[in-house]
Amino acid sequence: MACFITNKISVSPQQTFLSDSFFSGSANVAEERKLRAVEPNYKETIAEAGLRRRMSRIVKMGVSAGLACANGADGVDAIITATGLGCLADTEKFLDSVVRNDESLLNPTAFIQSTFNTIGAQIALILKNSSYNVTYAHRGFSFESALLDAMLRIEDGDARNVLVGAMDEITDLSFAVMERLGFWRNGAVMGEGANFFLLSGSKSSADDVALVDVATFMNRKEEAFDKCVQGFLSRNNLEISQIDVLLYGSSDKSYCLGGVCSAVSEAVDYKKYCGEFPTASSFAVWLGAEVLKRGALPCGKTLDGAKRVLVYTDYQSVNRSLILLEI
Amino acid sequence: MGTVVTGIGVVSAAGLNVDENLRSLRCCRSGVAKARILQTRHDVPLGEVALSNDELRSLLGVPEKERFSRASLLGLLAAREALRDSGVSVDGGARVGLVSATSAGGMDRSEFFYKDEVTKCNSGRLRDVVLHDCGDSSETVARFLGISDFVTTISTACSSSANAVILADRLLRHNKLDAVLVGGIDPLCKFTVNGFSSLMILDRELCRPFDQSRAGLNLGEGAAFLVLQRKEDVESGGYCRLSGFANANDAYHQTAISHDGIGPFLAMEGALKSAGLHPSDIDYVNVHGTGTENNDWSEGFAMKRLFGDCVPMFSSTKVYTGHTLGACGAIEAVYSVLSLVNDMVFPTFNFKNAIEGLELEPVVALRENAGLKNVMSNSFGFGGNVSSLIFSKM
User: Fold this and answer.
1) Cα–Cα distance between B47 and B30 in angstroms, integer?
2) Size of interface A-B (CB pairs under 8 A)
3) Fold assignment, B3-233
4) CA of B307, closest CA in chain A: separation in Å?
């Protein structure tokens, strides 16, 4: 049920937004355990000043990435967004005013923007796009669910081009809460970003990367997960030896696909570039597609004839997913 | 071929299960009243589920040590009822998934956390805030019921759970799953009450959908789930078919629907198309009908455009439950199934005068032997997210 990534845009902690410099080997590193996104020049991405001013940071990031990704598309037949925690800063802002003002004299702006579908809705509004529009908000499965929905729509012929993207943001409160919960204990850093893709049923150029398959796994024990990987590979008629690059992003650094990891010649921890957040796998798909297109890893190492990337993501050892890309 | 509804479960201000809800609907008994459980300064009627968290917990037999948000407790009650009703076994070899939907998620607990975090110098209890996100109630319900093949959550404000139904159908048609427990959950919390209050769209009286004097909505809470299966996999019929649906975006404003209801029109028209039905085939519309100035005008306008002079019977059941946000699509889907199965239209009993310029009158008294074959259910949300579902007799 493959579909093709005909455009992709990444706002990430790296120089990825309409920029080549990430792959020249200079990666940004975390400061105080946070990998903050390198934000676009919003004056260029969101032309209308009033609109720009009203938008919070995550909305600007998401809308910028989404609009840039849809730019030049031959029609967008569905807009599918994903977010683990939504517009967190707006949510905190409104919650703060409810508590501090004791439920009186509240400004609705933060409430309005706090809904999880704000970014998908704003993109539809700006593009005047009345097609299918939905938002997934389920921890480490948010982006994967969006991909699955997009792929099935394309396969059914209900859409030719689907704009699908994911976003999450760092806030001081969420960082502090997760710190108290022990999220950053074993070396993980908090990340954020907005990654969008234009998925199509057919290629727009010869080197478009195919999104071949996506699968989610709830609450599987590590021992049992190797079997899940085998099942995923065999339903795609593949052996592990046919995977050229494994991009893994694990919450638990001690486990990265056990046997699978050692069987693949190139295994890259992608969360060291984007940090930990519920929709980090969306950065991995951007990265994987870029690796296949360039035939090179972000460290600069060239790969000969790399055909397939497997993205493995573990979110808090509860949500695990596999995504297969092919060129 | 096709998708059938084989189980239903619902908890709302109108009752703790399907039977209680049906009784309220038949007797025109609203569950919307003065706040009893939620502590809020706002003196507005709310559609509260009658039980406290502790009472819900004991009804469900949830152990004391388990920290559940109100969202999870409500969700579990409705989801368990639907799953039992369907007879689907989660460990009988069938691949069973959960597609849930919510707008507030575990916000009721986050509010406690945040208050302490702000007023008592970072002493908010972590066990409260870990329940915050939308996925929490879905995973809790899934874990409690033993569902692990597929779990996800949709959040598109007030159309969330209608969109969940749309995804569930696709997962079944693509043979990704054999049965889907699909629905929505939303608890009342200060966050949403204050949000809607700040938008000045809360009525201080019982909401009056499609009435000229309407002055806003009443918020409510609850959860509803349906079990959907492929028709060919079901031996003994099921309640009805899910025969059509569509999702569109109004692309007009972040919180308002366009005056001419273009999004609602597209959603209803798309649902008809996907069902292979004509406008005249629809016998009854369970409208979104929140009671706000904006919604009811736009929805009515869109219905007139779609149905012309022959607008079918319609009613808003939000007078029974209040507007349950992310749960309303599923609650009203269950009510639509009840309408079809019992062949009755539940009335918007407090209607007096039609909106000037629309002249549309909802059903105002219980209509039995209504001759229903196809029922449409509308759900519209912030962000222009609008969806329509159609349920049809087997």
Assistant:
1) 8
2) 184
3) Peroxisomal Thiolase; Chain A, domain 1 (3.40.47)
4) 21
